[in-house]
Amino acid sequence: MTTISPVENYIRAITFNYPHHIPYEPVVRTAGWVGDMLWEGEEGTDHWGVTWEYELAEYLPMVKDSPIKSPDDLDRYRPPEPVFALRPGAAELFSAAERDTYLVCGFHPNILFERAWFLMGMDRLFVALVEDRPRIRRLLRQIMDYQVAIAHEWVKLPVDMMFVGDDYGTQRALMMSPDLWRELIKPELARVLDVYRAAGKWIKFHSCGHITDILDDLIELGVNIINPCQARANDLGEWGARFGGRVTFDGGVDTQHTMMLGSADEIRAETRLRMQQLGRDPRGGLLLWADQNMPFSAENRQVLLDYIVANGVYPLCAEDPQAQPLAEAS
After folding, report:
1. Host H or E run for residue 279
2. Fewest Cβ atoms closer than 10 Å to its Cβ: which of 116, 143, 187, 239?
3. SS3 105
4. Structural domain boundaries in the chain
């Protein structure tokens, strides 16, 4: 029986310092802030000028209207002043009596590309990426000026890590070529990640979809944890072989089919597969869980949790060290 606390075990996992088991205890609490977008149950116009509406209050709202509709709008638009305010309840996380029993993660999503398409609409943004590159460079710089100012506010607080999000992938490829991403997105993204890295904060970076082509770049920029390791959009066997030991994998168990529709046996089989693929490094580097926050059943959640608890002790899959990885689900 391990005597390592859940917090220490989690830190060992993300720092490649030989955790006892794949972390499953709820030791990370998120501190949110007002100013990124509207969230579940909220609709209206945010302070960037983007209008949101929801179909169901328990899910994220969607963009209804964007303020930038033409090249002239691109010239006229100015981001709001960066005013930092924590969401209700967040401040208490830093001073609670049980503060040593959990880590605090600051929340900084929609950092650049997503904010740009919120402002323009995705179709208009993609056209402008090709036809109006100078104006897009200026918009991305303006957005990141705002985000860097917010980052400097976050690092004044005793957060342990930062969740930074910006979705770049579709189911099969990046939304833009890797070269275009490196030309336009990477230099601006580096500005905000440098703030967090200089302050000694662990960086969890979220991007849905296929991002294999830029994962080396994200590691180069200082990302410590990559989320959600979307199983049906990436070859996670390739990820384990190429990137294992250099970044912690967070997620990895398919939600599109397995967690939503799969049997208990399918969930166990896929969870073992992801342990084999992403848990090759005995030093750690794996936070295994469902790859999306979807409304899968409590029963399926329990099957996943039970399997990780029972089989997630290092060295992983030790009872069958010569086993070949299971075939990918079709």
Report:
1. none
2. 187
3. strand
4. 6-227
Give residue-wise pLDDT tens across range 87-127. Answer: 999 999 999 989 999 999 999 999 999 999 999 999 999 99
Instruction: Name 52's bridge partners.
Output: 44, 63
Do the Cβ atoms of 291 and 258 come closer than 8 Å?
no
Parallel, antiparallel, or unpaired for β 85-86 and 33-34? Answer: antiparallel
Q: Is residue 320 predicted with pLDDT exceeding 50? A: no
**196-220 tens-digit pLDDT:** 999 999 999 999 999 999 999 999 9
- The rounded distance, in Å, linking the Cα atoms of 102 and 167 is 27
**The pair of three-digit structure tokens given for residue 73, joined into one six-digit string:** 């709008």
Count Cα atoms within 13 angstroms, Cβ side, for 19: 27
Q: What phi and psi, each to the nearest 5 degrees, are found at residue 106?
A: -75, 150
What is the distance, to the nearest Å, from the Cα of residue 131 to the centroid of all Cα atoms in its chain?
30
Burial class (CB in 10 A: 0-12, 13-18, 19+), 225: buried
Distance CA 135, CA 129 (A): 9
How far is 112 from 115, CA to CA, in rounded Å? 5
Q: Which long-range contacts (CB under 8 A, 24 or more apart) does 295-302 make?
A: 296/255, 296/259, 296/260, 299/264, 300/259, 300/260, 300/262, 300/264, 300/267, 301/259
Length of the chain: 330
Which token pair is 185?
Answer: 């997105």
Q: Where are the alpha helices (DSSP H) in 199-247?
A: 215-220, 236-243
Q: How big is the CA angle at 186 (ends 185 and 188), to the nearest 5 degrees?
A: 70
Q: Is the pTM of this model over 0.85?
A: yes
Residue with tokens 């609709």: 43
Fold (topology level) of 6-227: TIM Barrel (3.20.20)
- Cα–Cα dist 215/221, whole Å: 10
Report the Cα 323 to chain-centroid distance in Å.
31
